[in-house]
Amino acid sequence: MGMTMTQKILAAAAGLEKVEAGQLIEAKLDLVLGNDITSPVAIKEMDKMKVSGVFDKDKIALVPDHFVPNKDIKSAEHCKCVREFARRNGITNYFEVGEMGIEHALLPEKGLTVAGDVIIGADSHTCTYGALGAFSTGVGSTDMAAGMATGKAWFKVPGAIRFHLVGKPGKWVSGKDVILHIIGMIGVDGALYRSMEFTGDGIHNLSMDDRFTIANMAIEAGGKNGIFPVDDIAEAYMKEHSSRPYRIFTADEDAEYDEEYTIDLGALRPTVAFPHLPENTHTIDEITEPIAIDQVVIGSCTNGRLDDLRIAAEVLTGRHVAEGMRCIVIPATQAIYLQAMEEGLLKIFIEAGAIVSTPTCGPCLVTWGSWPKENAVYPLPTAILSAVWDM
Amino acid sequence: MNAKGSVFKYGDNVDTDVIIPARYLNSSDPEELAAHCMEDIDKDFMKKVRKGDIIVAEKNFGCGSSREHAPIAIKAAGVSCVIAETFARIFYRNAINIGLPIIECAEASKGIEAGDEVEVDFDSGTIYDRTKGTQFKGQPFPEFMQRIIAEGGLINYINSQR
Question: What is the ipTM of this complex?
Answer without folding.
Answer: 0.91
